[in-house]
């Protein structure tokens, strides 16, 4: 199983990705977690990207793509991945598609976790206690999402492997909805395959 999770900061991508990883026995790969780890470990990547991560700006595409290539390929060999936080822009999606196709690791489904702004802000402010995120950085991260990632959803709209789930529900219900939709998609794939082989 090869999945993408797309949603605003605070939409629950991390929580849902973890649960999907456990459910399907696949690797959870979070671009944000990997980038934060680089910053923490003060690697050369970490030193280059700290200013972007701290400000809530997107890290340059090439850095993210290079960083993800190895873990994604390794995950595919081990049964699959759920990618949380990548792609975040149309450019990343286009570049990733080319690379993934060349490597035979293309995504099979993309899940959009939809959560209203008021709920996102409530969650992010609650989460910010004890972290470095100020209200300003939170507002900026949401602004970056609207400017850069909403166009990605528009770009993916209408593809049969992409669907939206109401992310404002309880984590259990969100998980259930995602798994249900993935099962339908798998059934659709099978019927397509049957039709093709008939
Ligand atoms: P996240 O935990 O997914 O919200 O990501 C935290 C931060 O990591 C973001 O605010 C960006 O600075 C950076 N980041 C994560 N994923 C990406 C990506 N796909 N492209 C660019 N920057 C990213």
Question: Summed up, what is this model?
Answer:
With 198 residues, the protein is α/β, with parallel strands linked by helices. The chain has helices at residues 13-24, 31-41, 44-55, 61-77, 90-103, 117-128, 135-156, 171-197; strands at residues 2-7, 27-30, 81-84, 109-114, 162-166.
Beta-strand content: 5-15%
Hetero ligands:
adenosine monophosphate
Radius of gyration, CA atoms, in whole angstroms: 17 Å
The CA-CA distance between the termini, in Å, is 25 Å
- Mean pLDDT over the residues: 92
| Poorly predicted sequence stretches spanning 5 or more consecutive residues | none
Query: For the report, how would you describe the main beta sheet?
Result: 5 strands, parallel
Given the helix and strand composition, which structural class is it?
A: alpha/beta
Share of helix among residues? Answer: 55-70%
Describe the strand arrangement of the main beta sheet, using strand numbers.
2-3-1-4-5
Looking at how many chains there are and whether they match, the oligomeric state comes to single chain
Number of helices: 8
Q: What is the number of beta strands? A: 5
Written as H for each helix and E for each strand, in order along the chain, the element string is EHEHHHEHEHHEH
**Overall outline:** globular
Describe this structure in words.
The chain is of the alpha/beta class and 198 residues long. It has 8 helices and 5 strands; from the N terminus they run βαβαααβαβααβα. It has helices spanning 13-24, 31-41, 44-55, 61-77, 90-103, 117-128, 135-156, 171-197, and strands spanning 2-7, 27-30, 81-84, 109-114, 162-166. Strands 2-3-1-4-5 form a 5-stranded parallel β-sheet, with helices on both faces. The longest helix is centred in the last third of the chain and has 27 residues, at 171-197. It starts with a strand and ends with a helix. The model has no long low-confidence stretch (mean pLDDT 92). The protein binds adenosine monophosphate. Residues 9, 31-32, 35, 52-53, 56-59, 64, 85-88, 92, 141 line the site of adenosine monophosphate.
């Amino acid at each position: 199983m090869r999945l993408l999770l797309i949603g605003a900061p605070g939409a629950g991508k991390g929580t849902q990705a973890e649960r999907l990883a456990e459910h399907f026995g696949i690797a959870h790969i979070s671009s944000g977690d990997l980038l934060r780890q680089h910053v923490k470990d003060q690697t050369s990547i970490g030193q280059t990207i700290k200013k972007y991560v701290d400000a809530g700006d997107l890290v340059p595409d090439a850095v993210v793509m290079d960083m993800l290539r190895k873990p994604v390929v390794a995950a595919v060999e081990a049964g699959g991945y759920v990618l949380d936080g990548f792609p975040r822009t149309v450019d990343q999606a286009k570049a990733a598609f080319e690379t993934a196709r060349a490597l035979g690791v293309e995504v099979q489904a993309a899940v959009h976790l939809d959560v209203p702004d008021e709920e996102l802000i409530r969650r992010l402010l609650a989460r910010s206690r004890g972290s470095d995120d100020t209200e300003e950085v939170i507002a900026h991260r949401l602004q970056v999402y609207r400017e850069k990632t909403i166009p990605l959803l528009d770009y993916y709209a209408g593809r049969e492997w992409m669907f939206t789930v109401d992310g404002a529900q309880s984590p259990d219900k969100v998980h259930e909805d995602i798994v249900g939709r993935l099962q339908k998609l798998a059934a659709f794939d099978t019927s397509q395959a049957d039709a093709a082989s008939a």
